[in-house]
């Protein structure tokens, strides 16, 4: 049976191009894989045919646009997620052009012309020190609560992405610092507060973790996932809001909020932007500069709440006013 060129192209894209030629991280490859899994399922349902029967003729720009619209309308994905899925498909299109796949060239060229959808820049949210303390205090004394307390402390101390924190191993503790494995296989060292370092080492010691074992696990001993960590954070936020930190009641707090909080608190403490960029692992200065804009906006909002001084109204004095002369002499 003659091999399907479409399936062969996809297999080479995932088996060789992404992990070998581009040396992309496993996380990025998984994201691209999920995009194609969703796309193939959508096309299969759209054309009422099996996935194995799909060919080049089904992978058209019109179908791609319908798929992207399906992500937003039916699956409730954000514009940002839609654009990320499109980026994966455009990467595949460029690969097909480089491979000179003749049956796919016209569709690939038209796919690359699909524009990225403009999205509104969300207002950057971060926590106050009191809110961070309230969330940490609400984690509880159970084994899961102690794990959550350590995880949230590490997130706040390091400004790590949640994927970086969940990937931590005891071997990543380097002296008084923590080695984080970031995007694009890049690593960086971030200093730890003494109390964070003590708790982290104590946690690894109590659970007898080997150097290559994950630090954060679930109740079954498997690595803690992003959704599990998000669920635990939501519980802590609700508990803190109900008990004593009412400012959290109307807030949408996510795991990434800790990263924004670290950056803002560093900025407000006078740490230079260049250092914050290294701390967070930012490649582009523009990304770090967003925290400056957020801080200026916060100060402007505070200024608007402060009533300006009302200058005295100067009125012309009449000559010979004995009463005014008396008052001014007091």
From TrEMBL:
Keywords: Chromosome partition, DNA integration, DNA recombination, DNA-binding. GO terms for biological process: chromosome segregation; DNA integration; DNA recombination. Residues 122-304 form the Tyr recombinase domain. Residues 4-97 form the Core-binding (CB) domain. One of its GO terms (molecular function) is DNA binding. This is Integrase. It comes from Termitidicoccus mucosus.
């Amino acid at each position: 049976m003659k091999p399907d060129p479409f399936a062969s192209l996809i297999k080479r894209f995932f088996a060789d191009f992404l992990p070998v030629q581009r040396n992309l991280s496993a996380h990025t490859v998984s994201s691209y894989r999920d995009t194609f899994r969703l796309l193939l399922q959508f096309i299969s349902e759209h054309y009422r045919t099996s996935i194995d029967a799909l060919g080049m003729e089904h992978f058209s720009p019109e179908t791609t646009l319908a798929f992207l619209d399906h992500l937003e309308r039916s699956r409730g994905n954000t514009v940002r997620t839609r654009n990320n899925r499109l980026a994966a498909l455009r990467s595949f299109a460029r690969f097909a052009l480089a491979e000179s796949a003749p049956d796919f060239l016209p569709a690939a060229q038209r796919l690359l012309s699909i524009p990225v959808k403009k999205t509104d820049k969300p207002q950057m949210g971060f926590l106050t020190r009191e809110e961070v303390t309230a969330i940490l205090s609400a984690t509880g004394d159970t084994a899961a609560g102690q794990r959550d307390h350590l995880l949230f402390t590490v997130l706040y101390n390091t400004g790590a992405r949640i994927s970086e924190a969940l990937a931590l191993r005891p071997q990543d503790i380097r002296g008084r610092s923590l080695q984080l494995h970031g995007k694009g296989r890049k690593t960086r060292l971030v200093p730890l507060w003494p109390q964070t370092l003590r708790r982290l080492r104590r946690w690894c010691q109590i659970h007898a973790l080997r150097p290559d074992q994950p630090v954060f696990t679930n109740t079954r001993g498997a690595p803690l996932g992003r959704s599990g960590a998000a669920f635990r954070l939501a519980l802590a936020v609700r508990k803190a809001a109900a008990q004593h930190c009412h400012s959290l009641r109307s807030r949408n707090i996510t795991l990434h909020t800790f990263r924004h909080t670290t950056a803002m608190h560093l900025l407000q403490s006078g740490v230079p932007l260049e250092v914050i960029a290294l701390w967070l692992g930012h490649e582009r200065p523009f990304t770090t500069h967003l925290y400056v804009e957020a801080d200026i906006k916060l100060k402007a909002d505070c200024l608007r709440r402060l009533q300006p001084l009302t200058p005295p109204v100067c009125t012309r004095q009449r000559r010979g006013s004995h009463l005014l002369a008396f008052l001014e002499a007091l």
